Amino acid sequence: MTSIITADFPASRPRRNRRDDFSRRLVQENVLTVNDLIYPVFVKEGTGVIEAVPSMPDVNRYSPDTLMAVAETCVSLGIPVMALFPSIDPSLKTPDGIAATHEDGLIPRTIAMLKKAFPELGILCDVALDPYTSHGQDGLLDENGYVLNDETTEILLQQALTQARAGADYVAPSDMMDGRIGAIRQALEQEKLIYTRIMAYSAKYASAFYGPFRDAVGSATNLGKSNKMTYQMDPANRNEALREIAADIREGADMVMVKPGMPYLDIVRDVKDMFRVPTYAYQVSGEYAMIKAAAQNGWLDHDKVMMESLMCFKRAGADGILTYFSIEAARILTGRQ
Ligand SMILES: NCC(=O)CCC(=O)O
Ligand SMILES: [Mg+2]
């Protein structure tokens, strides 16, 4: 392979372009803007609720009414999309998670309120049963506790239809069942919901970095000591991610996602290079908590590490990032409050 250095030292002095702010700006290869951000939020039943999530500093659970102010902040900062995650009342959790399909459930009501008040804000909804199941798994269990694929997909497509009917702009299946992108796309087409976008959590790994999220949605205690390794991917695997992405694109995904984010940027790059489709990454709760905790201890510079981490997603090839830092980053990027 020929070298990409065009000349040898001293003819080439790469530090010349790094010497001044103007020349650094001129050679900068990637940019992060507010248009790259998707803000995940936690919703719970009630009024006037703003409840801190201890393992995720500066992240709260909101009732639909208090969430409106958060949505307003997103709109005023220019954040394109907010992603909704429910913290469901334990009394509504069942083995089949059927409350996920209820038309008058927390999420459909919240979508309707948001789209009425802020039609310009994109709303993305998680399609998965784990916030709704009494066992904390993403699907129906057989007698041995194995998560059933096709039976789960049947409920997931009802959940996706409920969200789309309520006005969700994006449905985002995060459960890793096989074939569910195709099933959901077909169901949407049949109902003439032809503009609902599907963001597929295509390469979702069985990661320990989701811990704080499970506290936030209240599924940690339900899940107990069990894991999700029979459907989420092995962190050791790379080629498998590409096969999962290929399948979801063929089945009708508009955009694909890799999750978690920072430890998986090699996968993001592979996906972008191979498929050249809109590619997103999720900087998950554990990644967020690590940065927050180190910053709280004075061990890292919060803002600098936050902005660097988000830029690295862009460099890896991501078109956007789901991040709990969205509002703080958008304030820095826009200079607005
Ligand atoms: N389906 C959504 C998630 O699992 C989020 C994980 C996280 O933020 O840790
Ligand atoms: Mg798949």
Which tags fit this structure?
337 residues, alpha/beta, TIM Barrel, eight-stranded parallel barrel, 12 helices, globular, binds 5-azanyl-4-oxidanylidene-pentanoic acid, binds magnesium ion, Delta-aminolevulinic acid dehydratase, EC 4.2.1.24, metal-binding, porphyrin biosynthesis
Structure description:
GO terms for molecular function: porphobilinogen synthase activity; zinc ion binding. It is a single chain. The protein has 337 residues and is of the alpha/beta class. The protein has one domain (31-334): TIM Barrel. 39% of the residues lie in helices and 16% in strands. It is built from twelve helices and ten strands. It has helices spanning 21-27, 64-77, 106-117, 149-166, 180-190, 211-217, 220-223, 239-251, 265-275, 285-296, 302-316, 326-334; strands at 37-44, 50-52, 60-62, 81-87, 122-127, 170-173, 197-204, 255-259, 279-283, 320-323. The protein has an eight-stranded parallel β-barrel, surrounded by nine helices. β5, α4 and β6 (170-173) form a beta-alpha-beta unit. The longest helix has 18 residues, at 149-166. The chain starts with 20 loop residues before the first helix and ends with a helix. 5-azanyl-4-oxidanylidene-pentanoic acid (FVT) binds at residues 126, 128, 174, 210, 213, 284-286.
